[in-house]
Structure of TetR/AcrR family transcriptional regulator:
Amino acid sequence: MSPDRPYHHGNLRQAVLDEAATVVRERGASELSLRELAATIGVTHAAPRRYFPGRQDLLDAVAVEGFARLGARLREAVEASPDYQKQIRSVAHAYLEFTISEANLVELMFAHKRGAGGRAVGESAAAAFTPMLQMFRHGQAEGMLGHHDPERIGLVFLATLQGLAGLVNCGVVPAGQLDALLDDAVARFPHGP
């Protein structure tokens, strides 16, 4: 081991995750290499394997962190207003802003493998969408949803937003049309689909 590449790196796990998130954001998950990350961070090529035995373990951990970040944004959006109808717009805007600005990360988050880390990714995804579900349960408690199932409405809402983000991210829908489409989508959800 050469003196310019020491094994110890403070919080190596977080340093590897941070650098991996940067690579995913800028170049996509397919470009992620543990060896390259180690070189960038300045540790031996074996050092990251202490926390991430394989590439998929690292990708799963990046996806888990991505869902945690998304969940925090959705929670902030719900908490920004006690008004149910304003919450719907706020959540939709927060979701689209995240999924469009973090397109490569979102692709990884929704395309994870069901390996050893699959359970952690699934649990983090469920936790991320809890604020959205709580918003629709709140709407139901206020009598805004009638007999509609808040979980089903939440799933349709999520699918609608994910579809809009996907269309923008792949270039089918110009970003300039997003606000009008968002208005149309949000208008369908205060009282159920």
